[in-house]
Specification:
The protein has 382 residues and is an alpha+beta fold. It contains 10 helices and 10 strands. It binds coenzyme a persulfide.
């Protein structure tokens, strides 16, 4: 039987995340957006409450939540500020390769001390020469006795300037394409690990993004995850897991846009009555509500599918792609409901459009999601 009702534990979890989002995040969202400030004091509080490292099992010091429960939290956080949420959940992305590819020894050695204190980690896959074609990455990993030497550059790396740990994908031989890629855990204090300066972004401005250069960085062999050449599979399986919470993040943006638009429509008067009484506005709100509901349900279904043991490549790509496209449409319509005020930074909705845009690009652009969806779909007609 399919049941859409949340358990009492899930309701409490969602309420706790909502309270944190509304009291700790929302009051600072506009200021951090304007200044491009990375509010580490908020991220530290999120860690204290168990809102970080959500996917790491409790035996390694994490919160150990199902993907479904993670999505409940992510939607609430993102309703307050998608940029802060990106920084809070970046640890899940960065640590997932360790959960998928690490041995028990590696998990305890790396995750136990990492999760015991407030730390940030970054997932280093994308490179300046091509993000979508992950199999063509050029960062080299040369084996030299009991360690590897890493050389190359990663870009658009969330939390990189503040991270103490990087999961890095590098190749032993670029001519092998995806078969040459391995995954490594690289501590920040390794000599030759050089995070770049923070990027100035259109949205998600409370989150920090930069390049990371590796110049002869020596990584011990025991920090390689899985076998040599297994890195691409680890990266793809990681993204299957983490694209669904991006669906939840986009749903949070869309719900916030709908909430702001509906609320404003009841207070704004034109032609002698609140604009909520004009059918032109009601039709917009109805379309926005449909998009929000569909985004949430697709995200929940993808999370449920993965929690029940399926790889979920198709469902997570659908959830991520649909929800982020929906968030763009809903944020756009929210601005239209606000009219000229919606275009002004003094009001909250233009930020939502800028934040929604990134959800269509990161963790695999929506064009890549459509390729994944089409491939998965066509296999079923073989
Ligand atoms: N899980 C496990 N294995 C997977 C997989 C998945 N989800 N998807 C692909 N693979 C495997 C394939 O089975 C294939 O294995 P074999 O060589 O054993 O047959 C291998 O990986 C190569 O797959 P494929 O031929 O599909 O690779 P492509 O080079 O065509 O690339 C896409 C596939 C486009 C899907 C991949 O490059 C991609 O996801 N790009 C986007 C990267 C991204 O999301 N970046 C954002 C970074 S985080 S902000």
């Amino acid at each position: 039987m399919v049941d859409f009702a949340l358990t009492s534990e899930q309701t409490s979890l969602r309420d706790m995340a909502r309270k944190f989002a509304r009291t700790e995040m929302a009051p600072h969202a506009a200021e951090c957006d304007r200044a491009g400030r990375f509010p580490e004091e908020i991220y530290r509080k999120a860690w204290e409450l168990g809102l970080m490292n959500l996917n790491v099992p409790t035996e390694f010091g994490g919160t150990g939540l199902s993907l479904f429960d993670q999505c409940l939290i992510v939607e609430e956080l993102s309703h307050a500020c998608a940029g802060m949420t990106t920084s809070i959940i970046a640890n899940c992305l960065a640590l997932e390769p360790i959960l998928l590819g690490g041995t028990e020894e590696q998990k305890h050695r790396i995750l136990d001390p990492f999760c015991a204190e407030y730390h940030l980690a970054s997932f280093c896959l994308t490179e300046p020469s091509g993000g979508s074609d992950a199999g063509s990455l050029k960062t080299r990993a040369r084996r030299d006795g009991d360690h590897y030497v890493l050389d190359g550059e990663k870009c658009f790396i969330t939390n990189a300037p503040f991270a103490s740990l990087y999961t890095v994908f590098a190749t032993g031989d670029p001519s092998l394409r995806h078969k040459g890629i391995s995954a490594f855990v690289v501590p920040r204090d390794t000599e030759g690990v050089l995070p770049g300066k923070e990027e100035e972004k259109m949205g998600h401005r409370a989150s920090a993004t930069s390049t990371v250069r590796f110049e002869g960085a020596k990584v011990p062999v025991e920090n390689r995850l899985g076998a040599e050449g297994e890195g691409f599979s680890i990266a793809m399986r990681t993204l299957d897991q983490t694209r669904t919470p991006i669906g939840a993040l986009a749903t949070g943006i869309a719900q916030a846009a709908l909430d702001h638009a509906a609320d404003y429509s009841k207070r704004r008067q034109t032609f002698g009555k609140p604009i909520s009484e004009h059918q032109a506005i009601q039709i917009k709100l109805a379309d926005m509500a449909q998009a929000v509901h569909a985004a949430r349900l697709l995200t929940w279904q993808a999370a449920w599918t993965i929690d029940h043991g399926d790889r979920g490549s198709l469902e997570s790509a659908i959830a991520k792609c649909f929800s982020s496209d929906a968030a763009m449409r809903v944020a756009d319509e929210a601005i239209q409901v606000f009219g000229g005020y919606g275009y002004m930074k003094e009001y909250p909705v233009e930020k939502l459009l800028r934040d929604a845009k990134l959800a269509q690009i990161y963790e695999g652009s929506n064009e890549i999601q459509r390729i994944v969806i089409a491939r998965e779909l066509l296999q079923r007609y073989a």
